[in-house]
Amino acid sequence: MPERLSSDHHLYRERAIVGCRYALCSMVTAFVLIGTHLPHHMAEGVFIASSSIDYCERNNKVDPVPCEKKMVVTLSVDAGQDAGVEEVVLVREASDKTRDDDKRVVEFEPIYLTTKKTRVRYHYPLFYERNFNAKPYEEQIPTSLFDPCVDKPGSSKATCGIAHDNYQKPIPFSEGFCCNCGACQLAGICPSDSRGLGSCNIFQTTGSASCLRLGELWYSGYNIGQGTAWYRLHVTLRDEVDNNSAASTRGSATMSLGPDQPADFSEKFGAWARLVGDFVPPEMPLDLTGKMLFTPATPRRHERVIAGSREWMFLDKHLVSLQGRECNKIGVSYEGFVTQGSRCVSRPGTCLADQLEDYRQRDVVAEAHGRRGKYMARLFGDMYTGGTRNTSSPYIAFWLRGSLSTMVTITINADSLRYVQSVSPGTILRIKLMNKTVFSYTRSGVVSVTVLNTGRAESQYFLAVRNCSVGVHPIAAQTINIPSGHNATCLFDLYVQEDVMTPNVKCHVELRDARGNVTDTSLFYLRLMPVNRTSGSQGREAPDGQGASVRVQRERQCSRCSWYNLFCYLSAHCWWQPAVYAAAIMGVLILVQLLMGGGSVPKQR
């Protein structure tokens, strides 16, 4: 039984214990400072520090404070690290005072500590904005002297008709606009393919109505928030006993940590683990806050809606008009179309360029020619969709390609420890270029490297692409964990920053084991071409992504009416059919009159 302490002794012990607590806090603070100032090349699973302390807990300021001997271990755990890569052996010791020799220290069964971390993915919150039509187009309806064009706002006789919203209220500017034959057209100074000149024929058409029509497919548009790192880090403790030279596990416990659970406790081992923080990754995650996500929404049975995330697109916000008043932007509305400048001297389809369908087609053409697209979401990285392909409930997350190490502190009953790291040789199996020809200052350069673990233990490797013979944007090495006899593939982006033409650009691939020793090297060659520089619509080039237009005959609308529905013809301004009715009636009346007049005999006086 411990002796009773005096009040002075109690006071001294309490001050010492408080000092221990302050020392522990200072030590953990020192670990945090070490973690935040480590260079990027140390962003792998490594042992950082350990210390043996007296850990004390105080519930109040009156009772004596109990203290225990604890070992505090601080580790850095890399993304995707498996349990067999590294191991910490915690040893508990005691002094055998019954012996007089120097071998008084007795070791109990050791505790084995392993860490495992899932791949890191960044989740991006989505905020619904509104739906956008994939491809608005212009419909032109020719008019004549006897059937003039009408574009009066709110008129029920508008040539284009009037669109209504979900509450059956007329949509402003949906009546379109008219381009009649005028001085510009008659003088021959208007462009040959302008809206007005195409309608200048006194004997046939003297004008045309330009109507905005909306395509069948609609996309839902979402704003994207800041990404958040998400992972699970598992700390497993187990004690093993030696039974006939074969180790067997007597007990184990796993503590699970993550951004939503920064600490956990194991009652069996009297241990607890706490996340200190994450290191800054060498390659920063995607920043999508300046973009919008577009997902096919309706009709539900459309092939793109069914395709799910493969048809999602990321587009910069400056390419979108939320109010719809700007031409040649996604979301252009009736108002933007009708209020466009110089509308009658412009070509049909003007104001309707650069729509969602146009951006998608550009990526389709690029992929067909072996290039990398710019807008499809699947081209931005390794996308994680949460196991669902449901377009109506989109979910955005991307796997982090590089490393993101996490610092964790484990406190446990122990007197000393041994750090065990698995080291295994490996070899580079193959190197594959996605495109044999790479253009400078583009995203066309992607190389795939496959590595094989040729040893007997699961181990960690560092793979790097470096020392290219031309200027390539610095490429961060990737950390991979490979089980024995298995292989893994890494993708590297090659952003060439020199505008030259070189037939054979040489790059080195280097594989290092867990200790940093070079275990294999290889070379690959690529053909570099200078980027095709253009001046766009400011130069002598026609702009791409032109708006679509179709020209329909007035009779096309008239043909929708049944032959007996006179009211339909009148409401559609189809005057020829009522004229036929009137002519037929007049003919019948004249015939009747002639028949009645021919059969009568005049009276004689």
TrEMBL record:
<protein>
    <recommendedName>
        <fullName>Generative cell specific-1/HAP2 domain-containing protein</fullName>
    </recommendedName>
</protein>
<keyword id="KW-0732">Signal</keyword>
<dbReference type="InterPro" id="IPR018928">
    <property type="entry name" value="HAP2/GCS1_dom"/>
</dbReference>
<keyword id="KW-1015">Disulfide bond</keyword>
<dbReference type="Pfam" id="PF10699">
    <property type="entry name" value="HAP2-GCS1"/>
</dbReference>
<dbReference type="GO" id="GO:0008289">
    <property type="term" value="F:lipid binding"/>
</dbReference>
<dbReference type="InterPro" id="IPR040326">
    <property type="entry name" value="HAP2/GCS1"/>
</dbReference>
<keyword id="KW-1133">Transmembrane helix</keyword>
<comment type="similarity">
    <text>Belongs to the HAP2/GCS1 family.</text>
</comment>
<keyword id="KW-0446">Lipid-binding</keyword>
<keyword id="KW-0472">Membrane</keyword>
<feature type="transmembrane region" description="Helical">
    <location>
        <begin position="575"/>
        <end position="596"/>
    </location>
</feature>
<dbReference type="GO" id="GO:0005886">
    <property type="term" value="C:plasma membrane"/>
</dbReference>
<keyword id="KW-0278">Fertilization</keyword>
<keyword id="KW-1003">Cell membrane</keyword>
<dbReference type="GO" id="GO:0007338">
    <property type="term" value="P:single fertilization"/>
</dbReference>
<feature type="domain" description="Generative cell specific-1/HAP2">
    <location>
        <begin position="65"/>
        <end position="570"/>
    </location>
</feature>
<keyword id="KW-0812">Transmembrane</keyword>
